[in-house]
Design a protein that fits this description.
This protein is mostly helical. Helices cover 50% and strands 0% of the residues. It has a domain at 13-20 and 37-94. The chain is globular and about 30 Å long.
């Protein structure tokens, strides 16, 4: 998938919900989020919100959803450019489980 397709691509609803929760966002905020939305410059997530997002991602998707690990491997320019699509591609399983980590059906 190229960058333009990623930007226009619809973000998975569960990721949008986690982003909105971490940001303490008002209703309708997530409707503006795209795969190309940058965590820093576009969504204005601060370090506290990123820490909350990291905890929510791990709770929902397990230890492989390691946002701090992903961010630790990036230089400042890459951190500034980190997008919602990057999170989806790098941290979320291709097919998300239907239950929270540790849950059963």
């Amino acid at each position: 998938m190229d960058d333009q397709t990623l930007t226009a691509a619809r973000v998975r609803p569960e990721l949008l919900a986690l982003l909105a929760e971490a940001a303490g966002a008002p209703p309708g905020w997530a409707e503006q989020v795209t795969g190309g939305s940058r965590l820093d410059a576009d969504l204005l997530l601060d370090e506290t919100e990123l820490a909350v997002l990291a905890a929510l991602l791990r709770e929902r998707f397990g230890a492989s959803a390691d946002l701090p690990g992903l961010r630790a491997g990036l230089d400042l320019d890459a951190l500034d450019a980190l997008t919602v699509g990057d999170l989806e591609r790098e941290l979320l399983p291709r097919s998300a489980p239907n239950t929270p980590a540790g849950g059963s059906r």
